[in-house]
Structure formats: C-alpha cells, structure tokens
Write a structure and sequence with these properties.
This protein has three helices and no strands. By secondary structure, the chain is mainly α. The longest helix has 19 residues.
C-alpha cells in the first residue's frame, strides 16, 4: 500500500478493521495549491469536479443495486 493512501479520514476506520472508501482526485498530486494559502475557490477546476461527482454517482448507483 502506498503511504499516501493513508492521508485521509478513512484510515482510522481501516486501522480498526472496518470497511472504508477514500474518494480522491489525487489531492496534492493534481492540485499544486492543495492545503496551502493559495488553495482558494478560484484555483479549483469546477468542470473536473462536476465530472468526478457524476462518475461517483454512477458508481454508487451501481453498488447500491442488490
């Protein structure tokens, strides 16, 4: 496992043996402003976010089918 996959809230669930899912756009690998003062709304890629949300909805809909 890559150490960077542990850099989010889901890790505490994994550590307790509970299932958890991390959804990411690869954070600071994609956004050079991630978690620094320049991380502002005007530096975000809203078109990319919209595609990500649409894709995640499709995944969730598929997983929700019994």
């Amino acid at each position: 496992m890559l150490p960077d996959t542990r850099l989010s809230d889901h890790t505490s669930f994994w550590d307790e043996g509970l299932p958890a899912l991390m959804v990411t756009d690869t954070a600071y690998f994609r956004n050079p402003y991630y978690h620094i003062p320049a991380d502002r709304a005007d530096t975000l890629d809203y078109a990319f976010m919209a595609r990500l949300v649409e894709s995640m909805k499709l995944v969730i809909d598929e997983l929700a089918v019994p």
